[in-house]
Amino acid sequence: MKLEVHGVGKDYRIPVIDSVSFAVDAGEFLCLLGPNGCGKTTLLRIIGGLEPATRGSVTLDGRAVVFEQRHDRRVGVVFQEDRLLPWLTLRDNVSLVLAPLGRPAAERVATADRYLGLVGLAGFEDYYPGRVSGGMRQRAAIARALAIEPDLLLMDEPFGALDAQNRRIMQHEVRRIWRETGRTIVFVTHAIEEAVAIGTTLVMLTARPARVREAIRNDGRAARGALIDDLNTMIMEEVERQQGGASLPG
Amino acid sequence: MRGWVTWLHLPTLGVAVVLVAVWWWLSLRYGAYVLPSPVNVLAGLGDVIRSGEIWRHSGASLGRIAVGFGGAVVVAVAMGLVAFVSPVARGVVHDAVAVLNSTSVFVWIVISIIWFGLSNWAPIFTTFMITLPVVAANLVEGVASVDRRLLEMGDVYRLSGRQQFTAIVVPSTLPYLVAGMKVGFGLALKVSVVAEIFGVTSGIGYVMNYSREILATQMVFVWALVMIAVMTVTDKLVFDTLSRRLTRWR
Predict the structure, then answer these.
(1) pTM to 2 decimals?
(2) Residue A23's beta-bridge partner residues?
(3) CA–CA separation, B111 vs B126, rounded Å?
(4) Which of A70, A83, A100 is closest, CB to CB, to B153?
(5) Whole-number pLDDT of residue A125
(6) Are residues A164 and A236 in the same domain?
(7) Residues of A in contact with B142 (CB under 8 A)
(8) Which domain holds residue A139?
(9) Is A79's CB within 8 Å of B153's CB?
(10) What is the rounded average pLDDT of the residues B192-212?
(11) How far is residue A77's CA from residue B155's CA, in Å, rounded to a whole number?
């Protein structure tokens, strides 16, 4: 699934996103980077059809994504929080989102178990979210997003609430899952090391109102350390530029 | 044995023993008309159990509560549904609940006697009007506290309105309904007993008032004990079981 973002902009009372354009080829792993509060989450929500854009358009394989209008493309979203239903087991949480796809119950359970296994939760299918760790809940949320076999997977700082160790493990896992499933992924983060470790394309946004500052292929040819240094310099410049203005949540 | 000891909570038991001793001493001082002795009251309790009067009168009271309070729960659920669907209706329900909540029991007793005469419907109507705002207030609060982020998750995964209602809204709201019903039932018992003083010839309130008129003060105490027993047993058997089952996932 090819994702194209054409001159998307968003104003609340002030312009948050000026104009952002980029394209993601099928099977790519794109990381959206930028200083805190630059509109990364807003942009992701516009791409997912959860919020209307003030300007511009988003297309999936040439077809427009419109806010509050259902389309037949499957988009999985992993939010900053796990957003699991606490009264359902992990298995039921995953199989719930398969119900609208019209699968029979037995097949839903089998699919849910398969994807829970893929994210390393085999044996925990019958656990309630409140009984497992934050990292495991976020894995279950990823399993849920993958289970609908999405054409596009959107992830909004999914590891923000995890400690450093779990974060590294999850980055590794997501990279593995991406290789095994070949999904197109857009991954929002403000952690540069994270983006360089997992993304195939890195899009750096400017401070608010956001534009694309730089789009970088991360195919392993550029020295990783130098790339991280460059990106750190860019983000510091953007943070400096933003200082003085009030901060909006990203 | 051990179970009973923990259930009764020893310090509470100690306080109860002291209070009964004080009660006994006072009853010796002031005489049986003002304050019957604990032994008298126990004997009276034995009498009403043997004669079956206990079942007749508590049954009559519980029957009226079932209709009045049951009706209040049904109407409150309807109000909760309307409040969920429309924010405008939520405001109206909220204000209506505030008005009903600040109306005295006596107002409804007098009005219901005017409207329904000296009949079963007077205590039923009074119970209905007093418990309705309690249950409705809880439900409206429950409906308002449904996590919008979970509903957005439901939108992302294309859950239908019905699926979102049964998987997200109902489980979020049920604990509030049970809490409201628990408080409402306690109130129903207290209120219906007062309303039974007027115009009916059965029920705990009627028989208590009758005992006073024939100067059988010990029977007033007996029926007070019966009322406490009915309240405690219902609370433990019905509402504790219900809330335990509802929060199994915690």
Answers:
(1) 0.81
(2) A4
(3) 9
(4) A83
(5) 94
(6) yes
(7) none
(8) 84-150
(9) yes
(10) 90
(11) 11
